[in-house]
Amino acid sequence: MSLFQPKQWSIEHFAHADLGDIRRTNRLTLLAEQIATFSGKSIARTCNGIDAQREGSYRLIRNKHVIPSVIRRAGFQCSVKKARNFDEILAIEDTTSLSYKHSVAQSLGKLGKTTDKSRGCWVHSTLLLDTLTTQTIGLIHQDWWLRHDKIIIND
Predict the structure, then answer these.
(1) What's the first-to-final CA gap in the chain, in angstroms?
(2) Distance, CA of 109 to CA of 116 (rounded, Å)
(3) What mean pLDDT, rounded, does the chain reach?
(4) How far apart are CA 95 and CA 93, in angstroms?
């Protein structure tokens, strides 16, 4: 499934996520579709000025019953299912930083030197590719971490 078909992609990856309420799962698939359609844009921009859609997206993100690991697991399970259709796959790994400048940034970790003002988190991802076509199969694993401002030394 290509991201040029974001609705089908979002359903395939997230419709089976168990968020405790089908309305949350439906909102998740809608949000994933929005983000895939408007890649790189803010959530507010992906809603095309529809206030109810924007508020619903933010409510989903803030909801204490929506556990990020459940969402990730749904996507990973989709990748595993798709990978079974390929004879040989590559697992490509990379680490990158996600930098934030808005109000949440101060609760995140350092990205550079201690004198840098950049705030965010580090992400190490593993992506599966078909060796013959280099078609993306999907994301299979991700680790996230914050780099603390000060090094803590335990005796």
Answers:
(1) 52
(2) 11
(3) 89
(4) 7
Q: Which two tokens stand for residue 105?
A: 């940034």
Please state the φ and ψ torsions of residue 43, each to the nearest 5 degrees: -60, -40
Residue 2: pLDDT over 50? no
Q: What is the pLDDT of residues 25-37, one digit of tens each?
A: 999 999 999 999 9
Give pLDDT tens digits for 41-80.
989 999 988 999 999 999 999 999 999 999 999 999 999 9
Tally of helices (H runs) and strands (E runs) in the chain: 5, 4
DSSP state of 144: E
The residue with tokens 């040029």 is 4
Can you tell me the distance from the alpha carbon of 91 to that of 137, in angstroms, rounded to the nearest whole number? 10
Alpha-helix residue ranges (DSSP H) falling in the chain: 6-14, 22-37, 43-46, 51-62, 68-83
**Entry pTM:** 0.80
The amino acid at 43: I
CA distances from 21 to 29, 46, 75, 121, 146 (A): 13, 24, 18, 29, 31
Quote the CA–CA distance of 81 and 140 in Å, as a whole number: 11
Predicted local confidence at residue 147, as pLDDT? 85
